[in-house]
Design goal:
By secondary structure, this protein is of the alpha+beta class. It contains 3 helices and 12 strands; from the N terminus they run αββββββββββαββα. The protein is 19% helix and 27% strand.
Length: 277
């Protein structure tokens, strides 16, 4: 094997090894991070992809990202419901909301959006809810006001949660994924999607989710994480944590580009070594 053959063989083998190493590490190296009811923060800039998974609540809500520090500052809106639910209560008493109906999808027909969390900053998710009108088109009218469709025939009426009420309004409220921002009341659960989602969707609506205290964080570097909110709409009803649900994952870095860059650098170095020799 001559010098040129050895050069090509060594370069290709070394570059292949480097490319495989980079290709097998498609996610950013994990540094210290928080992703749960204690807050959201990352040691490095981190791109995350959020997907709207569904809703089951009579409130009309929007979910956004807020920066925490010296106050709570809105950063961006992720998803907004254009109405209370896909259908009226008379047809669907679960107030089901889906992508493409209650939430408008993007140009690709998906309810997915990305956001870059900046290193060293503290964030939280915030669910803003509006008290719905007295009835939706197609809902039946009840003689007894306590049985209006907003109450779901349960002899209770909707009231917004009084935590973090905006400007004293009784029509608009915000609940945060960070428990401490809700006066110490947990209003969101975090967990692996394949574990948490079946648990939430298999229980009857308006039934307290007894395991909420065990779903306090997730690892978006390793798993698809479900974040589900309890909007506190009904007085005295169970906290079912199915009112607004999204999933999140860290966006992988492209391995191919990194491998090609390593290959180019190795070839330049080998050529330089040949010239110098």
């Amino acid at each position: 094997m001559n010098v040129l053959q050895r050069l090509v063989t060594t370069t290709v083998l070394t570059a292949t090894t480097a490319t495989v190493a980079i290709g097998s590490s498609v996610l950013p190296a994990q540094a210290a991070f928080l992703f749960g009811t204690d807050g959201i923060s990352f040691e490095r800039n981190t791109i995350m992809e959020f997907t709207f998974e569904g809703s089951n609540g009579g409130f009309q809500s929007s979910l956004g990202i807020f920066r925490v520090g010296g106050g709570i500052t809105p950063e961006t809106v992720l998803f907004t419901e254009t109405k209370q639910a896909d259908q009226s209560f008379a047809i669907d008493d679960q107030w089901t909301g889906t992508c493409g109906n209650t939430v408008i999808p993007n140009a690709n027909g998906q309810c997915t959006v990305r956001f870059t969390f900046l290193a060293g900053q503290n964030y939280t998710l915030g669910l803003t809810s509006i008290k719905p009108p007295e009835r939706m088109p197609g809902d039946p009218l009840y003689v007894n006001p306590a049985l209006n469709p907003n109450a779901g025939g349960l002899n209770v009426d909707y009231v917004p949660n009084d935590l973090n009420t905006i400007a004293g309004s009784t029509e608009l409220s915000i609940l945060y994924s960070t428990t401490s921002l809700n006066g110490g009341t947990q209003r969101a659960v975090f967990g692996r999607f394949d574990i948490l989602s079946p648990l939430l969707l298999s229980q009857p609506d308006n039934t307290a989710f007894a395991q909420a205290g065990t779903f306090l964080s997730g690892d978006p570097f390793l798993d698809r994480v479900l974040i589900a909110f309890e909007d506190g709409a009904f007085v005295g009803m169970g906290t079912d944590y199915n009112d607004f649900r999204v999933s999140a994952r860290v966006v992988p870095t492209p391995p191919l580009m990194g491998g090609l860059m390593v290959l180019a650098a190795l070839m330049r170095r080998r050529r330089q070594e040949m010239v110098e020799s």
